[in-house]
TrEMBL record:
Source organism: Empedobacter tilapiae
Main function: Catalyzes the phosphorylation of the 3'-hydroxyl group of dephosphocoenzyme A to form coenzyme A.
Xref: SUPFAM superfamilies: P-loop containing nucleoside triphosphate hydrolases
Compartmental location: Cytoplasm
Binding locations of ATP: G16, S17, G18, K19, S20, T21
Pfam families: CoaE
Pathway: Cofactor biosynthesis; coenzyme A biosynthesis; CoA from (R)-pantothenate: step 5/5
Protein's UniProt name: Dephospho-CoA kinase
EC number per UniProt: 2.7.1.24
Keywords, in A-Z order: ATP-binding, Coenzyme A biosynthesis, Cytoplasm, Kinase, Nucleotide-binding, Transferase
Amino acid sequence: MKNNQPFVAGITGGIGSGKSTAAKIFEELGIPVYNSDTRAKTIQNENSEVKVKIIAAFGEEAYHENGLNKPFISKQVFQNNEKLKLLNSIVHPAVFQDFEDWKKAQKSNIVMKEAAILIESGSYKDCDVVISVVVDVETRIARTIKRDGLSREEILARINNQISDEERIAKSDFIIDNNGDLAHLKNEVEQTFIKIKKMI
């Protein structure tokens, strides 16, 4: 730890890249993982200040009796980059503070922040190292169709609203190739883990 702060490894990747699977493998290796996307969903449902701002930006339809109206919000933001930026500007500061609180509670000398928009949000600047999980576009599409049941067109729209792998790689210290099977991914993660441990 430096100044009693744990070493922060950020991990990111586009839709269907397998970043969450990679993060779980890191977790199995002993690194506490903060899932920004999961926490963001919780914050959007439970943080009253965030809810007020989202309703002001997107209208009453943004929430229903069960919480955030995810299909409505997804349709709004994934087809409009400006609305996506607006949503991120509301949610990101709350997630940042939530991560800081979580980090302080960890006993490990290294923690991991998993985030789909680690680069876009600027969060990568708060990480000691950045890891990008990359995979070819067709594999990403096939995996996401299987996982989420979305159409090819819907997935391509989301991919086009995210930064490219080339842009992620330019901001990354480590690249994990996920074009193989699970055993290949585990090996990639383990090799990256060894390199990071040497940096602490």
